[in-house]
Design a protein that fits this description.
The structure holds three protein chains of three kinds. By secondary structure, chain A is mainly alpha-helical. Chain A is 78% helix and 0% strand. In chain A, helix 7 packs across helix 10 and helix 12 crosses helix 13. The longest helix of chain A is centred in the C-terminal third of the chain and has 38 residues. In chain B, strands 1, 8, 9, 10, 11, 12, 13, 14, 15, 16, 17 and 18 form a twelve-stranded mixed sheet that branches. In chain B, strands 4-5-7-6 form a four-stranded antiparallel sheet, covered by helices on one side. Helix content of chain B is 34%, strand content 20%. By secondary structure, chain B is α+β, with helices and mostly antiparallel strands. Chain B contains 16 helices and 20 strands. In chain C, helix 4 runs antiparallel to helix 9 and helix 5 packs across helix 7. The relative contact order of chain C is 0.16. The chains are: A mainly alpha, B alpha+beta, C mainly alpha. Chains A and B meet through helix 2, helix 5, helix 6, helix 7 and helix 8 of A and helix 1, helix 2, helix 7 and helix 13 of B.
């Protein structure tokens, strides 16, 4: 098991390298001259040229890429913002927790509501409960996040005055600031979670061992909770990783609406001002976050499914497992 | 942590259940009933909301919370011109002098200044007891260093107009200007901050994330593009009585919140997250203007206005066709723009610059300044020989500019002009706005204090590599401009000549001037209001009962 | 649309349709969607007003007989705009997903069939792309390409490639184990032929389902891009752009926000219903 985790961690290195290279190359193709944005319209050609030289923008792309990669992966330095000179890692340290908080909260809401909805729908297949759950899930997926966010704010902040409409707070009181953003971001994932649960449950319910359990006289509640749900969790866990990535991206919009100074607003501002180091550094950090999350998901996966655990223990390749799944 | 998470989850669960039902209702309700009920529901919520939240706002922490739609991306004193006029700037840095509400210079760090050669060389004397919050003394050498560093960094255009700066004593320095354009030195005074070189160099990130203050306030909390909290210093060097009124500190603790979504801004004010909003979007004003018991709404005429500049590059069809440009100016219904874009919170313009500019002649307001005239526009377009070639409008992707561009497109289409919109992000806009080959019309909002400021950055053919700010080389205009650049030439007659030339050739057109809308919650207890130089309330210097 | 694949196998297509027709929800989805597509095609002929015609006298006009959905902040008829916008919103979804699926499927097929090193390299490259959150990837691509209708389509299709590729590959791996492939290999069928005439048709049904869902998702993502200021630019009445431009008036004139929002919601809903129906119809396990 430990060996597997280590292997995965090592495998993260090329992925992060790849992300760094990819984003670096994409940013160099961005129209708009960063030195003009940094220096403003009054800068003369000589000043612009000096700035280009300082930022190394005139060097061939391979050289720049090499320099950047060595800074990041050998010296562990993401550099400073071109526009503000503020150290990027320290900004990320401040902002990433907020985005993580938002994303995890979003995930919890999706899973916490999606799974029960799916279970109810599956147990009551083709009854009215099924329809209600599935319609709820569908409506969730159909509403654009930012629209829902505005509607929620009008309802819960303005009319009812229960929750803050925007901003961030500190300590435990800070949690309430994340509730509306998390709900707004969760609907899409919630819906897919509910549907995934429903179809997985339906598959499992038809399986032989459930019939066996039932025929042995195991109470229906136990059949569902112990046998059916546990086994149908496996395909749901696999989508959780993808969902996390989806929420991480969706946070960019949610953060803008709710004025949360997280990674999303940080990167969007940077894209708009062509502050390449921030976009690159931010992407690297989001990629690392995402990879870690995928790792956790895979470990969870192993925990729920003893067959896979056994495979890890015996050192069999993981790819085989994936293909089977 | 675990416990809080559990609590949070259960709370969230409950909320989501309600929310999803609610969302379900909202989505599937028949539209007609929803929309007719919509406005009354909104009105209802306004009163209900303010009643509830009063407690939240007054049961306050003694911090005056201010909503603003922009925020500094870093605390560095070396900045470009963006945010130069933001309400928090005078609390962040202390400058040599400030412009007051009647647009006069008042000394702050500087004690006095004078020129002996008609505005080319200035001798400045600063106070001898200036110090910053780290206890470092600030003398003439720091001011000289700041100016030289600013010249080197070339972020603000005004520093490019400085020839040299030299320390002449402990508290005196001499500044030589490259030209004596009226207003330049005044801008320099305003843009030169008193920063201790020692403190600056001790900072690991050049004051990026934390600032050693020399102003009456110090930064207590700062998150880039999000929040800026300030607290009055106890060890400030100057007697408040010696300070200009518009920067005299009154509020002890204040906090600026950057809120970009305009609907969220109104909600923040309504729910008491902020006590006042500076430059509220016109679309949200009505609910506050209708509720005079709970809110004070103040309007100030804008200091910049919105202009359209016609490309001067030969490749553009508007560059050498004065009739076409005039036709376009006549086709624009300025009152329509004011109603459509600003819900009426704006004024038409009489020059490219609004009346607040120093040098603006009141009699221009009686002239015909391309007042909307469809017949005239149609006739001019006929005379212009316009051949149906599309005209492109360059602007940024912010909401106001987008809507403006669409309205202009529709106005111009009404006289048969085909219009293409080039709506780009800020970075691309910055990269192309000075290159007249990239557009036919560019929309912009230009600030400044003196008309000559504006003219020198827009129409001087020697200003940029490609000509003036739209790649034009108009030497007749340049001659007229240069005449106004000396203190003795900055006369009504010379200024009028430039105004008339720009107006007649229609190379630029002032469309409308949005008002700055400030809304203050009554429970903030505004007692005495002090205005800053753009004509709206200076939050830190005004007196509030509760702050 | 992938439906053409089925044209060859009339019987298969017919069975699916028959299965589908039993599913009321799916038929409702199909009905809504086809109505919308027809309306979108006919839009230039049936809209009552020019979608960009401004009439300041009608600013924020409430829905009425002359303006079914009311007027927006510039006095433009919202009904006409929503109807005309269907052309852009739906076509963005369909075209982007089609391009994305075509490229994604090709990559997935190559990877899944050849296996070994080829598979390994392709999968690792996809790992890299997938490690960047989708929205971020699309924001960066949109920033590189600039805003506009076609650029938005390109950005969105690039965003959907890796998911599609992975999915097809997984299907292929499953199918490859089947005996009929071994049989085909033993009679020396060319690899190309095995992929195109044996493997692909058997893998295609889950792809159709996810493409249908993908169109729905793409429409909402396009709305998200508009929110950030990228995406399709005005005056084109793309729904997402309309919604994001109107959001500041949500209190003052809620109808500005409701109608484009509703249009998106209904379309996405219809696509999801259709996708669910297709899934059920195509899934042999549910046929009992």
């Amino acid at each position: 098991m430990l060996k597997y985790v280590l292997k995965r961690l090592i495998w993260m290195i090329p992925i992060v390298l790849g992300v760094a290279i990819l984003v670096f190359i994409m940013m160099t193709f961005c129209p708009g001259r960063p030195e003009e944005i940094i220096l403003g319209p009054s800068a003369t050609e000589t000043e612009l040229a000096a700035k280009r030289l300082e930022l190394g923008l005139d060097d061939p792309i391979v050289l720049r890429l090499g320099r950047y990669m060595s800074d990041v992966f050998i010296h562990f330095d993401l550099g400073k913002s071109w526009l503000t000179n503020v150290d990027i890692i320290s900004s990320i340290k401040e902002r990433l927790p907020r985005t993580l908080m938002l994303t995890v909260a979003t995930l919890l809401i999706s899973v916490g509501i999606g799974i029960p909805l799916g279970v109810i729908a599956a147990i009551k297949q083709n009854k009215w409960q099924d329809s209600v759950c599935m319609v709820l899930a569908l409506v969730g997926v159909a509403i654009p996040n930012f629209w829902l966010a505005l509607l929620l704010v009008l309802q819960f902040s303005v009319k009812l005055n229960w929750l803050p409409a925007l901003g961030i707070g500190t300590g435990l009181a800070g949690i309430k600031f994340y509730i509306l953003p998390a709900i707004s971001g969760s609907t899409g994932g919630l819906a897919s979670c509910a549907r995934q649960t429903r179809s997985a449950m339906l598959d499992v319910i038809r399986a032989d061992y459930i019939t066996t359990a039932r025929s042995k006289g195991v109470p229906e509640r136990d059949v569902i909770m112990k046998h059916a749900l546990k086994n149908s969790l496996i395909p749901i866990i696999t989508v959780m990783g993808t969902m996390f990535g989806h929420f991480l991206g969706g946070a960019m919009i949610i953060e803008t609406i709710f004025a949360i100074p997280g990674m999303g607003t940080y990167i969007i501002e940077a894209v708009n001002s062509r502050d390449y180091p921030i976009v690159q550094g931010g992407s690297i950090f989001l990629a690392i976050t995402f990879s870690f999350c995928m790792l956790i998901v895979d470990l969870l996966y192993a925990m729920v499914d003893p067959r896979i655990k056994a495979q890890y223990a015996s050192g069999r390749k993981k790819r085989k497992v994936k293909a089977n799944a | 942590m675990k416990k809080s998470f559990k609590k949070f989850c259960s709370l969230a669960l409950a909320v989501v259940m309600t929310a999803s039902t609610l969302a379900g209702c909202g989505g599937s309700k028949p539209e007609t009933s929803e929309s007719s009920a919509g406005s009354s529901a909104a009105a209802e919520s306004t009163t209900a909301g303010s009643g509830d939240t009063k407690a939240a706002a007054t049961g306050s922490d003694g911090v005056l919370d201010i909503g603003y739609n922009q925020m500094v991306e870093s605390l560095t004193p070396f900045r470009g011109n963006t945010l130069r006029n933001a309400p928090f700037m005078t609390q962040l840095y202390e400058s040599l002098a400030v412009v007051n509400e009647i647009r006069e210079m008042e000394p702050l760090v500087a004690k006095s200044w004078k020129t002996d050669d008609n505005g080319f060389t200035y001798n400045i004397e600063i106070w001898d007891r200036v110090s910053d919050s780290a206890g470092n003394k600030i003398d003439a050498s720091d001011i000289v260093w700041f100016m030289q560093e600013s010249m080197k960094r070339a972020l603000k255009p005004v520093f490019a107009k400085v020839e040299s700066v030299e320390q002449t004593g402990d508290y005196t320095l001499t500044v030589k200007m490259k030209s004596n354009i009226v207003g330049t030195f005044e801008s320099l005074l305003r843009d030169t901050y008193a920063i201790s070189k020692k403190s600056f160099e001790a900072s690991p990130d050049e004051f990026g994330a934390s600032l050693v203050s020399s102003s009456p306030y110090m930064v207590t909390e700062y998150t880039a593009n999000s929040i800026l909290s300030l607290e009055k210093r106890s060890d400030y060097w100057q007697d408040e009585a010696n300070m200009p009124k518009c920067v005299r500190p009154s509020v002890k603790k204040l906090s600026y919140h950057c809120i970009k979504e305009s609907s969220q801004m109104a909600i923040a004010l309504e729910t008491g997250i902020v006590d006042m909003v500076i430059s509220l979007d016109p679309s949200s004003v009505k609910q506050f203007a209708d509720n005079k018991d709970d809110y004070t709404v103040e309007l100030a005429d804008g200091s910049q206005g919105w202009q359209m500049f016609f490309s001067g590059a030969d490749s553009s069809i508007v560059a050498n066709n004065v009739k076409l440009r005039q036709a376009i100016c006549y086709s624009i219904d300025e009152n329509g723009l004011i109603t459509g874009l600003l819900q009426g919170y704006g004024t038409p313009m009489y020059d490219v610059c609004p009346p607040m500019f120093n040098g603006f002649n009141q009699k221009w307001m009686e002239e015909d300044y391309y007042n909307f005239n469809l017949d005239k526009a149609k006739q001019l377009i006929k005379e212009s020989g316009y051949n149906g070639e599309p005209i492109s409008i360059l602007t940024t992707s912010n909401t106001l500019s987008q809507r403006m561009a669409q309205m202009l497109q529709s106005y111009m289409m009404a006289i048969g002009i085909k219009v293409e919109l080039k709506i780009v992000d800020m970075a691309l806009y910055t990269a192309t706005r000075l290159d007249g080959t990239q557009y036919d019309i560019v929309l912009n909002t230009i600030g400044g204090t003196f008309l000559s400021d504006h003219w020198s950055i827009r129409y001087d053919p020697a200003a940029y590599k490609t000509g003036d700010a739209t790649s034009r080389h108009d030497n007749t205009l340049a001659e007229l401009l240069y005449k106004t650049w000396t203190p003795s030439g900055y006369t009504e007659e010379n200024i009028d000549a430039v105004h008339k030339y720009i107006k007649d050739t229609a190379i630029a057109y002032g469309m409308f001037n949005p008002q700055t809308i400030v809304v203050i919650r009554k429970d903030a207890g505004l007692e005495k209001e002090v205005l800053e130089y753009q004509g709206y309330i200076a939050p830190a210097s005004s007196t509030f009962t509760n702050y | 649309m992938p439906k053409t694949t089925y044209a060859k196998k009339q019987s298969g297509f017919a069975t699916v349709m028959k299965q589908m027709s039993k599913n009321k929800a799916a038929m409702l989805g199909l009905l809504i969607l086809s109505t919308e597509i027809i309306l979108a095609i006919l839009a230039p002929y049936i809209i009552p007003y020019d979608y960009s015609y401004m009439d300041m006298a009608n600013m924020f006009a409430k829905p009425s007989a002359s303006h079914l959905f009311g007027c927006d902040d510039m006095g433009r008829d919202i009904f006409s705009r929503v109807l005309y916008g269907a052309r852009y919103s739906i076509s963005i979804g369909i075209i982007a997903v089609s391009i994305g699926s075509a490229i994604g499927c090709t990559i997935g097929a190559i990877s899944g069939f050849f296996g070994g090193q080829v598979d390994n390299i392709i999968m690792r490259l996809l790992d890299i792309i997938q490690a960047i959150p989708g929205m971020l990837l699309m924001i960066v691509i949109s920033a590189v390409l600039g805003p506009g209708y076609f650029n938005t389509i390109i950005a969105l299709s690039i965003g959907s490639i890796s998911g599609m590729a992975r999915m097809l590959r997984a299907q292929m791996l499953k199918e490859r184990e089947n005996e009929y492939i071994e049989a085909a290999q033993s009679i020396n069928c060319s690899k190309f032929r095995i992929i195109t005439s044996h493997l692909l048709p058997n893998c295609i049904s889950p792809m159709i389902v996810s493409a249908t869902m993908g169109v729905a998702q793409t429409i909402t993502i396009a709305a998200g891009l508009s929110f950030i200021g990228l995406g399709v630019q005005p005056p084109i009445p793309e729904w997402g752009a309309m919604l994001s431009a109107a959001r500041q008036f949500i209190r003052q004139a809620p109808h500005l926000v409701y109608f484009p929002g509703l249009a998106i919601a209904v379309t996405v809903l219809a696509l999801n219903l259709l996708g669910d129906g297709l899934r059920d119809a195509l899934d042999p396990k549910l046929k009992n």
